[in-house]
Amino acid sequence: MSELLVRTATGVVMAVVALFAAFQGGYALAVLAAAAATAVFYEWTRLAKGWGAAWYIGGFAYALLAALSLLWVRERAEDGRSLLLWIFIIVWATDIGAYVSGRSIGGPKLAPAISPGKTWAGFYGGVAAATLFGGAWVLTTGLYWLVLLLAPLFSVASQGGDLFESWMKRRAGVKDSGRLLPGHGGVFDRLDGLLPVAILTALAVIAGMA
């Protein structure tokens, strides 16, 4: 089986599991969030081995806060299910938009010293896709209108999370954070963009902006 097929199949399975947990909420989402946070922290500690205790503490807090944020959004927001799905749409649309526009347009590199494959075309494509699909979801579900304005900002945050993890991997001298997900590397590799968006969305809910 080709690498693209393996990557696609794994991605579909992950999306189905995430959507099932989002619709179910409660115990299903809590178990998935806890498992994902545990895997992220484990891979973080492997990347940051020898960097000092502050990195371990920071990684634990980062993974835990993101997991709690997902649960907070789902259970505490006025329309938690729709808002949680909006988080997924923003992250997934950003990834796909960045990949498609980056590969098809190319051009100047975004951060060649950190992630040589990323381009400015990919960056803007990711923001555009997240704004378009995230906005469509807001209008379809009737989420608070301010969420429309958050889509491009959170797309930037998602790409920032991706770049941060790429920097960690470059410093650690590894290609992937782990090998758990065929065709994708580790769990941290797949959730690097979701972590900051989950946290920021929870903060937006607390601030009354979502």
TrEMBL record:
PROSITE patterns linked to this entry: CDS (PS01315)
- What Pfam families does the record tag this protein with? CTP_transf_1 (PF01148)
Protein name from the UniProt record: Phosphatidate cytidylyltransferase
Q: Where are the transmembrane segments?
A: 12-41, 53-71, 83-100, 120-138
Specify where it is mainly localized: membrane
Q: Where in the cell is it found?
A: Cell membrane
Q: What is stated as this protein's family in its record?
A: Belongs to the CDS family.
Q: What class of enzyme is it?
A: transferase
Q: By its UniProt entry, which InterPro entries does this protein fall under? A: PC_trans
Metal-binding recorded as keyword:
no
Which key words tag this protein in UniProt?
Cell membrane, Lipid biosynthesis, Lipid metabolism, Membrane, Nucleotidyltransferase, Phospholipid biosynthesis, Phospholipid metabolism, Transferase, Transmembrane, Transmembrane helix
Pathways per UniProt:
Phospholipid metabolism; CDP-diacylglycerol biosynthesis; CDP-diacylglycerol from sn-glycerol 3-phosphate: step 3/3; Lipid metabolism
Q: What is its EC number?
A: 2.7.7.41
Keyword Transport attached: no
Provide the GO MF annotations for this entry. nucleotidyltransferase activity
What is the membrane topology listed in the Swiss-Prot or TrEMBL record? Multi-pass membrane protein
Please write the reaction equations for the catalytic activity of this protein.
Answer: a 1,2-diacyl-sn-glycero-3-phosphate + CTP + H(+) = a CDP-1,2-diacyl-sn-glycerol + diphosphate
